[in-house]
């Protein structure tokens, strides 16, 4: 199965009412592990890269890793640039071969956001790529991008006009979700997802998924959240499994990096297969 477009993945999920894990990787180990997890679960997968990760590894090196690891993959996967307010980074990634981007102009006035998103959509189309858009900044700073407090939610009419005018392929609304770790189970506006889907028939991206309950995921996915973003959960799994392994290594005075890598990899694989099961994408590969 070759790498496919974001639209092909989310449109199928949207039609069949399941969610696809959209997982932010941080290095080569996590990239390989989430891909392996998708294969194990027979699930489509959206691999996401933050601007921070792109800059840390480099556009060319990161894309070369992606090409190498997906060359013989037999489940549908796609490469997505997450929350990016920097037009140059968007251009660099599209030119290199990313399949889609989230142009994050959510802190701009809606009209300016709309104007620039139209330009980004046109640029993406020239590469055969797709675009996710948003008009409200979702609370939480992640990888150096975001805001401490959520911006005011726009009316349904404003959101619908944005979607229809820009032609974005996926829309990420604010529904009481947040990036990072929730201090309590979030109080979510489920009806806003329903209203947006009924008005536009556009797949919805659910941000701030780490920490939501299985029931919340199920409800939101049934309403049209076809893309479910996971970033914090992977970081926590990566760091905590590393910490536990290193504490044990210290006690045993055994220092073998490949064993550490294998242990962390398995934790990330298990995280990925678990998410595919929770979101209903397991067994949906084509």
UniProtKB/TrEMBL annotation:
**InterPro entries with a match to the protein in the record:** Aldolase_TIM, Class_II_FBP_aldolase, FBA_II
Q: Which UniProt keywords apply?
A: Metal-binding, Zinc
- Please, which domain of life does this record's source organism belong to? Bacteria
Which cofactors does this gene product need? Zn(2+)
Q: Does the keyword Zinc apply?
A: yes
The record ties this protein, via Pfam families, to: F_bP_aldolase (PF01116)
Q: How are cofactors bound according to the entry's free-text note? A: Binds 2 Zn(2+) ions per subunit. One is catalytic and the other provides a structural contribution.
Q: Which GO terms describe its molecular function?
A: aldehyde-lyase activity; zinc ion binding
Where, in this chain's numbering, is dihydroxyacetone phosphate bound? Answer: 180, 208-210, 229-232
Give residues annotated as binding Zn(2+) 2. 104, 134
Question: Which GO biological process categories is it annotated with?
Answer: carbohydrate metabolic process
Q: Where Zn(2+) 1 is bound, by residue?
A: 83, 179, 207
Active site per the UniProt annotation:
82
Instruction: Note whether Zinc occurs among the keywords.
Output: yes
This one is known as: Class II fructose-bisphosphate aldolase
Its source organism is Mycetocola zhadangensis
